[in-house]
Amino acid sequence: MRKIEFEVPAEIFGDFTEKLAETGLSNRVVGRNEDDEIEIEVHYDKSDAGLIDELEEHLQDLKEQLSGEEEEEEEEDDK
What we know:
Number of strands: 3
CATH architecture: 2-Layer Sandwich
Radius of gyration: 14 Å
Structural class: alpha+beta
Mean pLDDT: 93
Strand content: 25-35%
Number of domains: 1
CATH topology: Alpha-Beta Plaits
Distance between the termini: 52 Å
Helix content: 40-55%
Order of helices and strands: EHEEH
Largest sheet: 3 strands, antiparallel
Strand order of the largest sheet: 1-3-2
Oligomer: single chain
């Protein structure tokens, strides 16, 4: 059994865990890191590597969306 940790910003925790639940992979919340991101530990078999890739891509997409939203808010605040 292999293990990977995901560091998920609190703002997108719900969206990420929804996708994680769809995979059926064993997981647990480990805690928070120094950046206040939620650490999630996921256990998987070698045959589940494709699911891990999907989760990594999904998390990256969510982080990019979050970053874009924060930039929009900053631009609105500057007006």
